[in-house]
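Q: I have 163 residues here and want to know how they pack in 3D. Can you give me a structure?
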Amino acid sequence: MMTDAALDSFLHGRRVAVLAIPRPAKPPLTSPVWYEYDGSRFRIQVEAASAKAKALDRRGPTPVSLTIQSEVPPYRYAVAYGTARFGAGGNAELRRRMARRYFGRLAGDMYAAEEEKQGRHADQLRVIEIVPERFVTHDFRPEAGRFGRLYFAIYRWLRPVPA
């Protein structure tokens, strides 16, 4: 389990999340997503024509889960359970902030400009807002012990996660 401060720091890190949306008589719709977290809610921007947008549009406010994990050992994860609602329409500034978060300032600005250039304008996007009602978390670092943490630090340095 993570402390509130550790969880907040973890959620503000640069991680891709997996959004799970329930569907009647089908497996949940799961998809990796970029997110922005302001300490009280998650914002995810999706194309208005996407399966995610259509599934939520049909159902209105929908219980969902959002899984965020570290990609390197010793692993950590948090699962946020909450209700997804559509917020405002697409937001060019939100797209730019998220692109900068995941790519850095220069590459993020280039990504946002390329999206516009390719005709994928903010008015074709929808913003999903999720207010977490509870979190389930785990941090495997303490279980690794001092030697395990040192081992994994050296391992990550010698064998970085490939892109």
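Q: Anything worth noting?
A: The CA atoms of residues 1 and 146 lie 18 Å apart. The beta strands are 17-23, 26-33, 36-37, 42-47, 62-69, 76-89, 125-139.
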